[in-house]
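2024-03-11 09:14:02 INFO queue: dequeued item Uridine kinase, len=209
2024-03-11 09:14:02 INFO validating residues
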Amino acid sequence: MKNKKRPLIIGITGGTGSGKSTVCKAIMENIPEENIATIEQDAYYKDQTHLTFEERLKTNYDHPLSFDNKLLIKHIDDLCEGKSIEKPIYDYELHTRKQDETVNIAAKDIIIVEGIMILEDEELRDKLDIKIYVDTEDDIRILRRIQRDIKERGRTVDSVIEQYLATVKPAHDQFIEPYKKYADIIMPEGGQNEVAIDIVISKIRTQLN
Ligand code: CTP
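2024-03-11 09:14:37 INFO prediction written
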């Protein structure tokens, strides 16, 4: 990390399927790897290895209490102090953290924190220097989620629709959308919004210089 300056922490949030990871990827691709790291709130879903697979299926993954924000905040603090962290790895098919496997993340000048509920927790929100809300229409988000969860997360169409109606949508209306008011930047169309992404990249480059 250059000059041991406190890193710039950028929060990227928005509903499921809004394109948060595409925005992160676009930013990461344009900034040298040595300067930037992403930590996903999803990696901090609470460890559920003590539960059976059937019990894990009953967890509501769209409630703030399902995240270990305490550890996430500690890791942000560690990175700010120039320490490296061991970021957990989350397994969406087994619904828990991987055991004995983490990713080592060194302190960097720019840290992106990406996740659905990073603005809802006040302590976490206050750690973020720039808060971006990726704002994508609900129909587009659910269509993307169906495709992604089947291709990448081992789900069926029925299970995705059932989960969406039971927990994902109500949580969006309760814990995600109302917190848009805390965002500094609202980014319509997410990954497709090249102008907005370029502005964020320029801000990062200014910070690095
Ligand atoms: N989730 C799940 N099963 C788990 C853990 C999480 O289905 N065991 C789901 C939650 O229901 C939550 C979603 O994962 O709604 C959060 O990830 P999401 O925001 O959809 O993915 P990202 O790739 O981070 O974001 P984007 O789609 O915006 O790129």
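2024-03-11 09:14:37 INFO annotate: The domain at 2-199 is CATH 3.40.50.300 (Rossmann fold).
2024-03-11 09:14:38 INFO item closed
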